Amino acid sequence: QVQLVESGGGLVQAGGSLRLSCVASGRTFSNSAMAWYRQAPGKEREIVARITWSGERRGYADSVKGRFIISTDNAKNTVYLQMNTLKPEDTAIYYCNKASTREGDYWGQGTQVTVSS
Q1: Which among 1, 40, 71, 105 could bridge 92 via Cys, Cβ 3.0 to 4.6 Å?
Q2: What local confidence, expressed as pLDDT, does residue 31 receive?
Q3: Segments in the chain below pLDDT 50
Q4: Which candidate, 8, 17, 14, 13, places its Cα nearest to that of 87?
């Protein structure tokens, strides 16, 4: 059974931190690099960070480089996103999924992150 459960979002002041978690269930995820995405109101979903399950390869969008850290816990099938020095423009719904998705792929419910100025 394929399932993605994101959590850890909330309301935080600018400059604050949050740690997001994503539990990924299903073989399709264990065989894929994973990523965090976000979608702000009125904007398209964008990739924020990606990682292989081994943690050897990671990548970040320029907008979050130096502030966000992506990591994994293989034993828990969990992907994390540590978000530091948050900015109002980081406000969005955050999702995790495979690093390469196709139209029609399953998505979880996401977790809302709101950064106040």
Answers
A1: 40
A2: 82
A3: none
A4: 14
Task: Give the per-residue pLDDT at 91.
Answer: 98
Amino acid 27: pLDDT: 82
109, 7 contact by CB (below 8 A)? no
Q: What residue type is assigned to position 24 of the chain?
A: A
Distance between CA atoms of residues 16 and 25, nearest Å: 30
Q: Which whole-number Å values give the CA distances from 84 to 16, 20, 41, 65, 67, in the listed order?
A: 6, 11, 21, 10, 5
Helix, strand, or coil (residue 109): coil
Q: How far apart are CA 51 and CA 60, in angstroms?
A: 9
CA atoms within 13 A on the CB side of 24: 26
Q: What is the DSSP letter of 77?
A: T
- Here the tokens at position 117 are 């100025």
Give Cα separations from 56 to 11, 59, 85 (angstroms).
31, 10, 24
